[in-house]
Amino acid sequence: MSESNKKLNINNIPIIGTAVFVRNNGKILLGKRKSTHGDGKWCLPGGLLEFGESIEDCAIRETKEEFNVDIKNLKFLGIGNDVTKDKHYVTIFIFADYLSGDIDISIFDEFYEWVWVKLDNFPNNKFYILENFLIKNFALIEKLLKSN
Fold this sequence. Notes:
Blueprint: H1 3-6, E1 15-24, E2 27-33, E3 42-43, E4 46-48, H2 55-67, E5 70-83, E6 88-100, E7 111-117, H3 128-146
Parallel strand pairs: 1-6
Antiparallel strand pairs: 1-2, 1-4, 2-3, 2-7, 5-6
């Protein structure tokens, strides 16, 4: 067993979750985080993968829980691997189409506000996980937004 594996504890295990680019009329759904981690930063719907849950089910559940929105046509976009001093996030990015639902962020109270926004008008103060993914994948997301 390596030294690093001997030191493994629950506090330094990577956190696995999803982030969903929800498309509706050429725009993407964003929420302004209400959190101790990334407070006031704009992010996508998404959250932590639960034990035994599929990636798709996590994306669907988190989008419904956070925004009261149902999604369809889920597509895998890529994986983000973001490490800071005290956190390690592995984020599976999904692209999906809006299906139905009136947005309601009061259910879990995780966001100050929400907005549908064009990709080239994304706000500057993005959560770093979203920012890092956009740097590498902007052209891909732009192409998907224009497709049917």
